[in-house]
Amino acid sequence: SQQGEEDPQALSIQEGENATMNCSYKTSINNLQWYRQNSGRGLVHLILIRSNEREKHSGRLRVTLDTSKKSSSLLITASRAADTASYFCATDRNSGAGSYQLTFGKGTKLSVIP
Amino acid sequence: DGGITQSPKYLFRKEGQNVTLSCEQNLNHDAMYWYRQDPGQGLRLIYYSQIVNDFQKGDIAEGYSVSREKKESFPLTVTSAQKNPTAFYLCASSIDRGSDNQPQHFGDGTRLSIL
Fold it and tell me: Do A99 and B106 touch (CB under 8 A)?
């Protein structure tokens, strides 16, 4: 079952522009995470935002979380060609017996044109 | 450097054959995970383990098996019962703090294809 859904599916921008990706989810969460995946590689964790936080920054990344709308956004400012990758949001879900697992969306494929 | 190592990078399976994908971590993490990724899709959880000698089925466990005999190692076997095994397989690990999800660290994957 996929809880998080990213939007748009693909995004193409010029170097130096900002890129915004959105994630919507269905059930309540403890936290939401964003990951990046370069083609043919594993995922790399970017940022984690807790349900009681509204905004978080890390370098050129800005993440917002609106629990009332069950949505999050990832903003990459002043994009670079090296930011070209797929970006996934992941939400936690209760697997029972105190175990929480991550559910990943299908991702947004970002292309930054030099 | 600490990290997760998956091997091999590419693997080919013949009909009726079982194949095993290796995953080793030196991060001293308790929890380990196996995901399957199909083209243009997100990750789907196959199996996970929170502690040595214990593991749980994920969303798509049928046709797969795992073991967790050592903290560092979590091999995945794709059995002949898995009729559509062609995919990119990712192993991950994390500190397990029960109800508090921690970031997961990923290996660079194994791409499995049918011969």
Answer: no
